[in-house]
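We recall that each integer encodes one residue's backbone shape. We quote one record:
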Amino acid sequence: MMHEAQTTDPITQLPSELDSAQSKLVYLTLEATGGATTDDLSQLLNMQKLSILSVCSSLSSEGLIERPGAEYVLAN
């Protein structure tokens, strides 16, 4: 389940590991929502679930996001 948008300060600089438009979009969406499932991301971003899974796998292996439960969130 998606969280409501957080009211924290916006990201001032994206991590340099974000090399594709899709990875930036997923990262920023997770930052804005506070966490989301692959289904949520697919619906929000109008992307195929397979693409979402690929991007999340990449971001996770780079240590930028994590999946402590059903949702992906930004890594601390």
Remarks:
- Helices lie at 21-33, 38-45, 49-61.
- Residues 55 and 69 are 18 Å apart (CA to CA).
- The mean pLDDT is 89.
